[in-house]
Design brief:
Oligomer: single chain
CATH architecture of the domain at 1-158: 3 Solenoid
Distance between the termini: 122 Å
Strand content: under 5%
CATH topology of the domain at 1-158: Pectate Lyase C-like
Number of helices: 4
Structural class: little secondary structure
Order of helices and strands: HHHH
Helix content: 10-25%
Number of strands: 0
CATH class of the domain at 1-158: Mainly Beta
Largest sheet: none
Length: 413
């Protein structure tokens, strides 16, 4: 009777047990420095190898089911045919690792680095690849992987210039510096995706889900973001010049030092957003919601803020020169040392606002409400327009006239 070898027996014959017993003992004892260790075919199921250094280690055909490799260094490790089902590989460094034929079903690879790793014939069915770096990784047609992550690999390595990705699920994708110029991402899911320094110029992002997305330093010039949800998004230093952000939802977003020159933010919600030192020159912010937003040092020269809600906003040292704030709500806003030269403050509600040191030369105060305004001196209004048509001045018009006369006398002397 001829007894046929099972697949496992065949595998054992092809790859004999060659692990070093001493190496295995150290690995199981909690030793962290396992660089170049020979653990071929070793049984390390559910072992705790968190933050271990396994650089260039031999783990070929090792039994690693359910093992903990969180933040471990597995650079250039040999993991051919290894059983990594359900393994915890969060934040692991797998750059250049050999994972050919490895079983990674259900593995947690969130934020792992797989750049230049060889994934040919591997099985990644059900694996979590959110935030994984796939730049330069080797994939082949026999690789078992969710189509979503194959698409992410395609974009990361070849870009998606002008591609139609409407409605695509790219949640948690790691795509820094990706080229998505003029791509159609309408209603795409990009929640928690990493798009730092990505090129999204003239891209269509209408109605896209961008909650928690990282767009630091991204290029979004001329992009269409109408109605997109960017709650908690990080856009620090991003370029959004001439971008369409009408009705965008941006509460608690970080736009620090971003450039939004001539951008359209009509009816956008930026409540409690960080806009410190942002550039909004000649931007359209009519009807925008900026309640309790931080606009310290922001450049809003010539911006349109008609009927904007800036209640409780921080505008300290902001440049609002020639800005149109007609009908805006600035109740309890902080305007200390702000530049409001030639700004239109008609019918602006400044109740309880702080105007200490604000430059109000040439401002139009027709119909402005100044009830309870703080730290406003008569001298600040000597060059303002229509002061007599403002309501609830904290001092008399006679005091303003007197301050103007005193200033003229000082100039003459």
């Amino acid at each position: 009777m001829v007894i046929q070898n099972t697949d496992q027996e065949t595998k054992c014959q092809e790859t004999p047990v060659l692990y070093n017993p001493e190496h295995l003992k150290l690995a199981l004892s909690g030793e962290k420095n396992l660089e170049r260790f020979n653990l071929q075919k070793a049984n390390l199921e559910e072992a705790n190898l968190q933050k271990a250094n396994l650089q260039k280690a031999n783990l070929e055909f090792a039994h690693l089911w359910g093992s903990f490799f969180k933040e471990a260094n597995l650079q250039k490790a040999n993991l051919q045919g290894a059983d990594l089902q359900g393994a915890d590989l969060r934040g692991a460094d797998l750059r250049g690792a050999d994972l050919r034929g490895a079983d990674l079903r259900g593995a947690d690879l969130r934020k792992a680095n797989l750049s230049h790793a060889n994934l040919s014939r591997a099985d990644l069915e059900g694996a979590n690849l959110e935030g994984v770096n796939l730049r330069g990784a080797v994939l082949n047609n026999t690789l078992q992987i969710d189509p979503k992550w194959r698409l992410v690999w395609e974009i990361a390595n070849n870009g998606a210039l002008g591609h139609d990705l409407a409605g695509a699920n790219l949640r948690g994708a790691y795509l820094p510096e990706a080229n998505l110029q003029e791509a159609n991402l309408q209603e795409a899911n990009l929640q928690e995706a990493n798009l730092q320094k990505a090129n999204l110029q003239k891209a269509n992002l209408q109605g896209a889900q961008l909650q928690g997305v990282k767009l630091c330093g991204a290029k979004l010039r001329g992009a269409d973001l109408q109605g997109a949800d960017l709650r908690g998004a990080d856009l620090q230093g991003a370029c959004l010049t001439r971008a369409d952000l009408t009705r965008v939802y941006l509460p608690e977003a970080n736009l620090q030092e971003a450039d939004l020159t001539r951008a359209d933010l009509t009816r956008a919600d930026l409540s409690e957003a960080n806009l410190s030192h942002v550039i909004l020159r000649h931007a359209d912010l009519s009807h925008v919601i900026l309640r309790h937003a931080d606009l310290e040092g922001a450049d809003l020269h010539g911006a349109n803020l008609q009927k904007a809600n800036l209640q409780g906003a921080n505008l300290q040292e902001a440049n609002l020169q020639e800005a149109n704030l007609q009908g805006a709500n600035l109740q309890e806003a902080n305007l200390q040392e702000a530049n409001l030269q030639e700004a239109n403050l008609q019918k602006v509600d400044l109740q309880n606002a702080n105007l200490q040191g604000a430059d109000l030369r040439g401002v139009n105060l027709r119909g402005a409400i100044l009830e309870g305004v703080k730290n406003l001196s008569p001298g600040q209004l000597i060059h303002a327009k229509n002061v007599h048509l403002a309501s609830d001045l904290p001092f008399s018009l006679q005091e303003v006239i007197l301050a103007k006369q005193l200033a003229a006398m000082e100039d003459d002397s």
